[in-house]
Protein 1
Amino acid sequence: MRQAWRVTDVRAAEKALMATLPEGTLMQRAAAGLARRCALLLEDSGGVYGARVLLLVGSGDNGGDTLYAGAALASRGAQVRALLLSPERVHLAGLAALRQAGGFTTADLPTRADLVMDGIVGIGASGGLRPPAAAIVRELGGLRGRDGRRPIVVAVDVPSGVTVDTGDVPAEAVTADVTVTFGCLKPAHVIGPAATRCGQVELVDIGLARTLTADPAVRVAEAADIAEWWPRPDATSDKYSRGVVGLATGSAGYPGAALLSATGALAGPTGMVRYAGSAHREVVRAHPSVVAAPRVAETGRVQAWVCGSGLGTTDEARTELRSVLATSLPVLLDADAITLLVGGEHAEDLRRDAPLVLTPHDGEFTRLAGEAPGADRAGSAARLAAWTNAVVLLKGDRTIVASPAGEIWANPTGSPALATAGSGDVLAGLLGSLLAAGLPPVRAAVAAAYVHGMAGRRAALDGPATAPDVAAALRPILAALLS
């Protein structure tokens, strides 16, 4: 598992650590790690000696880190030039070190560079870039390095222009190939559009772990976590002990949603899938192992319910939703079930002790919450989770999972391939299977989003992916993950 911390918590940890160290130690540690990573990148593209390195230097410690790293590269024979965006507030010791090592300052953006180090602003910045900095960022695309290639862009701590605590990108911002960050990850590295601006994120250990005592703002699961959590049968298992998931999905108008949610559920860990709805004949024809009935009341025993995908918003759909919510079982509400909540008729039904998971996309979130997720997607998901007392899985490129207690997870495996009709139905079935198998709701949501994202990536290898392609990729992804 990876974890990210908010700026205030990072600053407090840095202050506590600096009190125990000689002055300047943290900056030297950061600069050394930054220079090392830049040197490796240059070695891979022709070597450090003679390489043209451009430093974009703002004020404060971020600029100091950049200048000291530039000095280290200059001492190895790189041609290092620093463009000072705030000369009156430049880190003087760092600038002196650069000049002593043979680096220079420049007043204008050059036309050639092999590597650009983005030290314009660090984690303490707020708002978008100032116009002069934004203009420079826009012109970076015109630079060329060795053999006419564009330069490698390395962001120092975070790409300049992103909002660190929310992952928002309000205006012009740097798009980095590599981001070298210090001490710990920050939310912008893992959530929102900022995460896609970071490129590969490299973490430099500066000794912050022992003073970083606050809870993380965002958690990110890794493959080992998913493999550890995933329910597995043993020698004593039977189809009931593995869990039985019920699907109240699809309708006469949308039978495909029933089929796709069943396919997702069958790829999960449960031993049986039961289906309730008007598409029961189509479901059994496609999936003979599914036990089907026309209505929830006739379904039989299950351990968790999935409700809403393609259900419609008719009176019959409302009756099925009420039947599901009236149980004492974990329930996942998706798509039309979320839409049915908006009118308020089901407010009493939501006051239940059993776990509830909501899986909205942005439009459904807006209808339910009364406002769009906005710039702070993680915070918005957490507020909705607290209001509904439900685990909220807010779909997107960096899907967010938030618990009522404020725990936030970001999914790292999102793919544009998942932006296709029916993909969410597959996710709902898979997540419901995990709930029925006994996985706690937050872990079930995190694991389902992770595997679903990997399936989307695999499906896209053969061209534009459809929801059936994503569903078909679940089994091979799980086979590799769990082996």
Note: The chain has a mean pLDDT of 95.
Protein 2
Amino acid sequence: MSTPFRGIYPAMTTPFGEYEGIDHEQLAADARRLEAAGVAGLVPVGSTGESATLTHDEHAEVVETVVDAVDIPVVAGAGSNATREALSLAEDAADAGADALLLISPYYNKPEAAGFREHYRTLADAVDLPQVLYNVPSRTGRNIPVDVVADLAQHPNIQGYKAASGDLGRVSEVVERTRDEVFSVLSGDDGLTLPICAAGGTGGISVTANIEPERVSALAEAANAGDFERAREIHFELEPLNCALFAETNPIPVKEAMHIRDGASPIVRSPLTRLSEEPRERLVEVLEELAATPLEA
């Protein structure tokens, strides 16, 4: 069947200024920069956007700023561990103009399979937008069961899966069991975008694309075209950056990288802190090496 999400969708940071307030001017500029680089769409207010420290009003304001800045699809983060709260965030994102929703699985309370089904069906029935399930057990404490994903993929509004478990066997099984649906599997681990595309995925929601949007997009484009030799070359060019951007908790390193590259604000909201000295030195080296390695056409 068709794949509604294809290519690279940067997981945007939320820039903060003085007193950790949102810098909407910088946010809009970031969105336009990424659009000009040729990405498939943008993902604000996800984990990389520090959604856990944003108020509900700030969520909606960030989505609205990004929507107003670009003409490409905006996939807004809107998940929560409480179904009613997730529904409120999803409705607000829809009202702000989002084209689709990224829905992290309920965290901390660790629902059973029936709870996952009820949670996601409630959102899909109530909000008429394409929705992407987000499996990231390192942050939530539990995987979405593959049986649940296969079942939910039959809902017309549930059209994608962001795979961030690091388990390629699980990703492959999700691809296999959703092939007959209007459904896309996207990498949520930058270092695994290539193997996930090789297994039948169609792109990724990428942290690294904030720094190297053209290069990450070229990797996905090559993989989707079956040119795995070129995709591998780009993968190995990016791998040092992928590692450097996860040396400490995301989005600490990527905000520091944006600061080094373009002077963007490196501020993260407490309890996160600035990148420590040793990983910052390595990040500077990696960025210099990539700058000296032009992307071949």
Note: The mean pLDDT is 97.
